[in-house]
Design brief:
single chain, 162 residues, 2 domains, five-stranded mixed sheet, 4 helices
Length: 162
Amino acid sequence: MHLASLKQTNHGVEFMKKNKDKSIKFTKAKLQSLKHTEKLEKYFDLQCQGLCIFVHPAQSLNKSFYGNWSISKVDAEGKKKTSGRYRYICRLEERSLEAVKKYVTMKLPDWKKTNSTSHKIKTIKTFVEAYKASAAGRIGLSLFCSAISSRITKEKKYNKDR
């Protein structure tokens, strides 16, 4: 299997160029003719960027449309890592091919935004800050602080009496 190569688009986002034998022109007849095999097969549309179909193994006999895109990030060593993302749309028989293509064309920019690597990274600190900012966090924090304060006071008294 060939490694995916990258190509630059006018929006600065990189997409994986699919293996040529898995990229086909989606037509109703062509999609119906795709055979179920022993493993999951993914086919990508040549005419609609971001549209693919999963042909599930023979026992399930499902064919499902998915939106697809990729995100790139640079790891700690400075190497660029690209990973693919998929979003389920519907089964082959549920919507017309034209409706699915319009839906993918309309929603793809939003999907890319929600999965970009530029979002704020969640750490323990961000969760603690969110908890402190919430009403439950303020009440819980004040109860915790008063319990600690009372414990310290009791320990001071105990140490004085000794």
